[in-house]
Amino acid sequence: MKVMVVAAALLAAFVNASTVCAQPDGGAANGRPSPLGMNLFGDPSYYNVDFPFLNLVKQAAGGWATGGGGHDSTGEEGYVPLDADGYPTSLVCNGCRNQKFTYVHTLLIQNPGGNNPEVAPGARHLYQPGTYRLKFIGRGTVSVGFDARVDRGNTCGPGVSLTNDAANTYVSCTFNVDQPTAAGLVLNINAIRSSTDHPRDISVVYEPYAARYDAGAIFNPQFLAMLAPFSGIRFMDWLGTNGEFSPYSATGPVAAGAASLTLTSAWTEHTGVRDILFIDGERRQATFTFGSATVTWAGGLANAMPAVPGKWARQQFWGTFWLLNYSLAHRAHPSNAFWNTAAGWHVPIEILVALCNTLHANAYLNVPVMFTDADIRALGAMVMTGAGMDQGFSGLHSDLTATFELSNEVWNSAFQQYGAVGALGGQHWPGQPPGGGNSQWMSAEYSYRAAHMAQDLQMGAGAAFNRVIPVLGAQAANPGWARGYLGSNYWTGAAGSVDLRTYPIKAIAIAPYWGQGLSAADCMAMTGQPDGGLADFFATLHSRKGARGTVYSSVPDGGWQGQAQGWVSAYTSWMTSSHSPLKLISYESGPGFVGNKTCPGWPELVTAANRDPRMGAANLDFLNWWKKNVGGGAESIAYQYADTATQGGDGSWGALESIMQWVANPSPAVTPKYQSLYEYTRE
């Protein structure tokens, strides 16, 4: 009963939040004896399961698909003229022949959680049923399809449509979702009667929250209540960090001196000039044309690019160049039609800061690699003071901190940023050895840019820098990366190490996940146990030996948690002896078991274990170990990954499997994993 009372209080506190940037009263932070951070999973999208925004359009597909003639996709997206916020200004194509499309559409909700989604345990629906309101300004016709219905009492027209002929006037209507299905909701623009007064500022809001939305509220109150216990929010996914560099391939080698290449397929986005980075580190502004595979730029290349796959220096590449997707000059704004990485760089900074202010939670932001010194100074000033934000928004509250990390896991060669940073290092220090896989170029360049990021943040934040925590991201299992970053002599010269007085990095950030996959033989042995392997699964968190005595050779000595504790201890020992001013942060953590098909029965075992009360207890054990051996303040906080995510072959990351579990049971006991996190924050 006590748990339910606390949950009700949390929910009530945030259901009544109705301002754009609500200034916190301090109560939420004061009620968290043990600080704990949370990563938000994925960029807000039609297929995710957290439904963070009141306006469903903000989480839409991130672009407008073209349809007509009985086809949902005519492939003419690049011909649709858009305004600065991404709303179509006409349904007459710009430059095409034989136009096929007659309307445009975007998905608001579909297959939440993945293909063939199931209702999460304890939830009642895939998404919220009930009455919704459609609203927009401008002359034209907008409609909603799939699960949308017009029932008695609704005000939308036939086909769940709304037409407006009044100039610069808002109109609205209501419709119902009686039974949410995987088909979800689709938004259509069926007619546009004026290119200057076209349908825009379109919103689809759950009707009970419509008045709150009209008063300026941004966030789903269920989402806020679920996040209320956490004292820090990491926005790596919401910033689309791992999508900064998109690789593209030419049809063959590109000669030195070339000023053009041919892509392996035609360009499918709007015609325009985009920044690109070649695998040797050369940067150009290139022209892409919708429907054409030809890319051109000014200034011939200094080096020849190999055919793909091919090597540059000592790294293998599967692309010729990267498209550079993010820049501060073209950042997202609150007025944009969509807030996801498919539509540009990230959820707007204003929205990230507003969420932290509303929750009274510290912010953790990942900075794009390609940001200039001036960009980073401006970003620091924007977050900490509100300088440069759009009207109506303010900077981070004066008693909250902001952690800044350059990119994410640049040491991880599975991510495009590894190769891109190595390429930049080759341009920076062409006379220095690249290292295997160009790792030394990468390490030196990352060290250089992360150190200068800290310096830039100090300049940009000014007096607020005492609340800024620049971090150096490193690999939990290999402190050698951190030692290499801090000891890089490619740019520190005779000093041989980074001067933390000049470059004020305050912490090292690692991700000590516990748990991985088993060997095929061990997997068969574990899943073959009478209980499907659950008892042995939890026994191996602390030992190689299962509950019935089976020894699992692919489990590390001391078990999975023992392995992660060993990684953390290696860092704290080295940092105490060599870099005592630095703190240690866990930028991600938690159970890291992936439900891939190591053997028959393994995905089912991982799913069952993540839903078992023993997983919650194990999570709590590790967090308490972290607090005892590392600390629990803002500069040594542990961040979990992540808030809501379905179980699947790529991981079982979510504290919840859907926000709809919270809707059905707004209680810390909603899942074992969530309850363990809640209990930790109260200890």
What does this structure look like?
It is a single chain. By secondary structure, this protein is an alpha/beta fold. Among the domains are: 161 residues, no CATH class; 80 residues; 183 residues, no CATH class. The chain contains 17 helices and 24 strands. The strands form five sheets. The chain has an eight-stranded parallel β-sheet with strand order 23-22-21-20-19-10-1-24, covered by helices on one side. A six-stranded antiparallel β-sheet has the order 11-18-13-14-15-12, covered by helices on one side. Helix 1 packs across helix 4, helix 6 packs across helix 8 and helix 15 packs parallel to helix 17. The longest helix has 23 residues. The radius of gyration is 26 Å and the shape is globular.
Briefly, what is this?
By secondary structure, this protein is α/β, with parallel strands linked by helices. Among the domains are: 56-216, no CATH class; 245-324; 328-510, no CATH class.
